[in-house]
TrEMBL record:
Protein's recorded name: Carbohydrate ABC transporter permease
Record domain ABC transmembrane type-1: where: 47-238
Segments crossing the lipid bilayer: 51-73, 85-106, 118-139, 160-184, 217-236
Gene3D superfamilies: MetI-like (1.10.3720.10)
Alphabetized InterPro entries for the sequence: BP-dep_ABC_trans_perm, MetI-like, MetI-like_sf
Amino acid sequence: MLFPVYWMLNNSLTRDEDMRRTPPSFFPAHPTLDGYRAVLDQQLPYLGTSLLVGLGTVLLTVVIAAPAGYALGLLRPRGSGALSFLLLAAQMIPGIIMAMGFYAIYLNLGVLNTLPGLILADSTLAVPFGVLIFTAFMAGIPRELLQASRVDGAGTFRTFWSIVLPISRNSVVTVSLFAFLWSWSDFIFASTLDGGGRYRPITLGIYHYIGNNNQQWNAIMAAAVVASVPTTLILIGAQRYIAAGATAGAVKD
């Protein structure tokens, strides 16, 4: 599992002409930082765009999924079971089909090649997952807490904001992380909905190094390494929250 990561690091430090040698070298014979210089010179705007799209996707996903999970897990409105099934089924739709649908809609609305359009599209992947995670976690919150808040005069929204959401911190972190990772690594929506825009994410930035007659593998691998650093740091820092949030609701007393 770690070998592709090692090979990515190895190639990011290897000159393009050395990569064509056979057999391939498992260590750079003539290490170079040209790929990383190219990344710093050319890819920083793409990284900034990916960061904006990722944060926007996280915000939109949590704003929609957390109240929906609260309603499905605790308020139990009529039809909640059917809605949960539809959310589960929505995750089975291939991304390319959704991208074509978004393209037709965005073309009519005039929002192609825009950051809000890409954020909205990426959120459609994360919201169903987020709702299911929030529902499973919030369904296990003791009803006594909700009853106590109502006795104190708190309404439905105040109960959600002041009691349920703080308790659901692990789920918030888990959903936020997965939403960020999906948007950060998205290529289908980016190439379809924002391929010709001024602000393009890092996945398209890496793709630009690949041409019909030239592939800059040194720069490609260096860009991949740089793009992996933020997500790796986030995963390491949020590991314990992910484990707690992803398993919430899996075991019932």
